[in-house]
Design goal:
Blueprint lengths: L1 H6 L12 E6 L2 E6 H11 L2 E6 L6 E5 L1 H18 L5 E6 L5 H16 L3 E7 L8 H14 L4 E3 L4 E3 L2 E8 L9 H26 L6 H5 L4 H10 L3
Parallel strand pairs: 1-4, 5-6
Antiparallel strand pairs: 1-2, 3-4, 6-9, 7-9, 8-9
């Protein structure tokens, strides 16, 4: 059915009823009477295929029509395969999200961005928790910073009703994967954290229960602005 539809898109041989046509090929192009073009196609054992009917005169090729349709169909498949459907994945936080939940959602966000999807992260303020909107903003800023190697920030955190949103788009192809230098830096930082873990436990015991996320979120609005401009450079 699709092949029949494609066949009807082109005029072939005697279906071409204009006075003259432009023949294009590897050697260039030439304008000849349509009857002469039909004779040329017959002598070469191919078809006269009109590929650009709106040109003056219409543009034609001397080619096997079945081969021409096959090439067109193959080209359409290749173009369709290159079209990537971008989805928007949501990540929801509370204003006092704990560290374990934060890391779990950060991992998923990295996967979404690596797959070429956008991420819409938001903090939902329930009831009187709207008083912690600054804490929610800090959380989103930290989130953007932690995803610097995977996505670019499309705007500063914005409050809409009871939700504060942050949008991230995947970086260009070839940029989402971390560089070896970035992986080495993370490994070194992980080793440092392991070495400091006993000392950190003592500090945590003196820190309020919900203060851990804020203490780790050391990023300013200027730093986020740098993130939004890094892709343009």
């Amino acid at each position: 059915m699709k092949n029949d539809k494609m066949k009807n898109q082109y005029r072939v041989n005697e279906q071409i009823r204009v006075r003259e046509v432009r023949i294009v090929g590897d050697d260039g192009s030439t304008v000849v009477p349509t009857r002469q073009a039909l004779e040329m196609a017959h002598d070469q054992g191919v078809d006269l295929v009109e590929i650009s009917p709106n040109a003056n005169p219409p543009v034609c090729r001397l080619i096997d029509y079945s081969k021409f349709l096959y090439q067109q169909k193959k080209r359409q498949k290749e173009m369709k395969a290159k079209q990537v459907k971008v989805e928007v994945k949501e990540i929801r936080f509370g204003p006092q999200t704990d560290e374990h939940d934060y890391q779990f959602k950060l991992k998923h966000a990295k996967e979404f961005l690596e797959d070429g999807n956008k991420v819409r992260a938001y903090v939902f303020f329930r009831g009187r928790s709207i008083l912690f909107k600054e804490q929610g903003e800090v959380l989103l800023l930290r989130f953007a910073n932690d995803l610097e190697d995977y996505g670019k920030v499309e705007g500063m955190p914005s409050l809409e009703g009871k939700k504060m949103f942050l949008y991230l788009a995947p970086k260009k192809a070839g940029m989402a994967k971390k560089s070896q230098q970035a992986r080495d830096r993370e490994a070194a930082e992980a080793g440092t954290k392991d070495a400091q873990r006993p000392q950190q436990r003592e500090v945590d015991s003196e820190t309020p229960a919900n203060g851990g996320l804020l203490a780790n979120a050391k990023i300013s609005a200027d730093a986020l602005k740098r993130l939004t401009e890094s892709d343009e450079e």
